[in-house]
Automatic annotation (TrEMBL):
Protein name: Cupin domain-containing protein
UniProt cross-references to InterPro entries, sorted A to Z: Cupin_2 (IPR013096), GPI/OXD (IPR051610)
Pfam families assigned: Cupin_2
Keywords associated with the record: Metal-binding
UniProt keyword annotation of Metal-binding present: yes
Residue ranges of domain Cupin type-2 in the record: 46-111
Length: 125
């Protein structure tokens, strides 16, 4: 068992196509290294006001978000959605996606990936 309040967050560390930094925080809760999972990774994500989690895709894994707090703009393929707490977003393998927090509250979300580790992050912006 792992607790987000005990282990804290680390900054996202990816770089976009023009050298821009990915923004947001993550606390991994279930993964191959943490819990021996062989089929998924689950994290708690936090996007601070004004931050943007780069649009990207995973050619080797599907993903989901469950919004716990905040009202982020979710970029999914060619469409954008205004999400709210309680929304669940499924992101099929290979689909471009990202998150923008243009609000005043932290965006809090649970993130799941269909691989326990080592999935590819391919920036699309």
């Amino acid at each position: 068992m792992h607790n987000v309040h005990e282990q804290g967050f680390t900054a996202l560390d990816k770089v976009g196509l023009n050298g821009q930094r990915d923004q947001g925080l993550v606390s991994t809760l279930i993964s191959r290294d943490l819990s021996g999972s062989d089929d998924l990774c689950v994290s708690w994500g936090r996007i601070l006001p004004g931050q943007h989690h780069l649009c990207h895709h995973h050619p080797d894994a599907s993903e989901f978000y469950v919004v716990l707090g905040g009202t982020p703009i979710v970029h999914l393929g060619d469409t954008t959605y205004r999400a709210k707490p309680g929304d669940a977003i499924y992101i099929p393998r290979g689909t471009t996606h990202g998150i923008t927090n243009d609000g005043k509250e932290h965006v809090e979300l649970i993130v799941g990936v269909s691989k326990p580790a080592d999935w590819q992050f391919v920036p699309d912006e």
